[in-house]
Amino acid sequence: xxxxxxxxxxxxxxxxxxxxxxxxxxxxxxxxxxxxxxxxxxxxxxxxxxxxxxxxxxxxxxxxxxxxxxxxxxxxxxxxxxxxxxxxxxxxxxxxxxxxxxxxxxxxxxxxxxxxxxxxxxxxxxxxxxxxxxxxxxxxxxxxxxxxxxxxxxxxxxxxxxxxxxxxxxxxxxxxxxxxxxxxxxxxxxxxxxxxxxxxxxxxxxxxxxxxxxxxxxxxxxxxxxxxxxxxxxxxxxxxxxxxxxxxxxxxxxxxxxxxxxxxxxxxxxxxxxxxxxxxxxxxxxxxxxxxxxxxxxxxxxxxxxxxxxxxxxxxxxxxxxxxxxxxxxxxxxxxxxxxxxxxxxxxxxxxxxxxxxxxxxxxxxxxxxxxxxxxxxxxxxxxxxxxxxxxxxxxxxxxxxxxxxx
Length: 407
Ligand SMILES: Cc1cc2nc3c(=O)[nH]c(=O)nc-3n(C[C@H](O)[C@H](O)[C@H](O)COP(=O)(O)OP(=O)(O)OC[C@H]3O[C@@H](n4cnc5c(N)ncnc54)[C@H](O)[C@@H]3O)c2cc1C
What we know:
- This protein is α+β, with helices and mostly antiparallel strands.
- It folds into two domains: 4-43 and 150-218 and 319-375, FAD/NAD(P)-binding domain; 79-147 and 220-316, D-Amino Acid Oxidase, Chain A, domain 2 (2-Layer Sandwich).
- It is built from eleven helices and 21 strands.
- The chain has helices spanning 12-23, 58-77, 101-111, 123-127, 149-163, 207-210, 248-251, 287-298, 300-303, 348-360, 392-396, and strands spanning 4-8, 27-32, 48-50, 83-84, 88-92, 117-118, 137-141, 145-147, 166-169, 173-179, 182-188, 193-195, 198-201, 218-228, 244-246, 253-255, 264-268, 273-274, 307-318, 324-327, 334-338.
- Strands 5, 6, 7, 14, 15, 16, 17, 18 and 19 form a nine-stranded mixed beta sheet that branches. A six-stranded mixed beta sheet has the order 9-2-1-13-21-20, with helices on one face. A three-stranded antiparallel beta sheet has the order 3-8-4, with helices on one face.
- The structure holds flavin-adenine dinucleotide.
- Flavin-adenine dinucleotide binds next to helix 1, strand 2, strand 3, strand 14 and strand 19.
- Residues 8-14, 31-34, 38, 41-43, 48-49, 172-173, 202-206, 210, 223, 225, 267, 313-315, 338, 340, 342-346 line the site of flavin-adenine dinucleotide.
């Protein structure tokens, strides 16, 4: 068997899928519109949180536990680790109670047998630079941390190339090539055709534009990420200031310890703003003020630190916050692998296998949450701050405009 697979998109979904499919004997080509890693891709950033903490949603906690073993395996193969197990600090704005994200995460993970350290009774303020008054409760999960996501992607791509995956950069896929009604390759903006036995579309935020029939279940939201550089970065080193989530399901705030350049990254896992991935990226006005207001109330030592970098990064949101990894039932020969919904990167060690199993029609332990589904109800990922998740589609208005091949 030497069946060929064309993968559209060389982010973490596409790159891991390419590597695993090549190992399974396929002839694999990745097509990406940018250079790789593409600076516009969601994956291409200095850091992503790796956490097991998913409220009462034990499925993701278990899957994250499996991914963490994968991260350890990957680290062991590298000269320098790219996953940093600095732990994950979960801050609660009131005493943890059933039904709250922090309490439910604590219970779920404890029941799985992982030791957690409860931080009630003023411990948050005593031990960390956080305002204890704002966070009277919480816990520290030593099993978690962050990964250097852009570097990880570079590594996966290098490994993919070393195993024989072909990479075509600067090639924008504009559509699918059909033969007798079956998808048999891709077409590009330059009018080229690339035949393949199967196609995987792993185009991140661009997916619902390339495949407009996905627009009822996938859409794009923009999320600002800001870096502040305090004069003294020492109090923000990982041992004193581990990766954190501050009442994340109620406010969205999360962030990272200081990077080697002394900058501290802060972001918000909230509803974001509706954007078109083909438009220039602009951080909305008032963003810096909103971030500083949060910092002044909760993390005074960072509130006046100069802003050194800001970026708008795009989620490909799915209707329910679960990823979308399955054969397209209406388009034989096509697999969609997208819908990261702002939390897929941590599962990088599992994604390639999941997508390869979808291509091969094999059962996969994790696949059932990511299968093709109808837009009947909507929920959200447990940590996501999004009061309007249920009505989000109505609020955002009609689906985005269909793809315009000239853009
Ligand atoms: C601000 C932000 C913070 C996040 N934080 C976390 C976190 O802390 N932890 C976590 O686990 N996850 C996090 N995520 C989510 C995670 O980064 C994404 O789920 C994941 O990286 C998505 O990968 P992808 O391969 O689907 O998409 P991308 O990385 O965006 O890659 C898609 C690729 O497809 C290419 N492409 C698109 N259209 C075409 C076309 N027509 N032709 C050819 N190529 C095309 C693009 O150039 C791009 O390279 C975050 C995401 C964002 C935006």
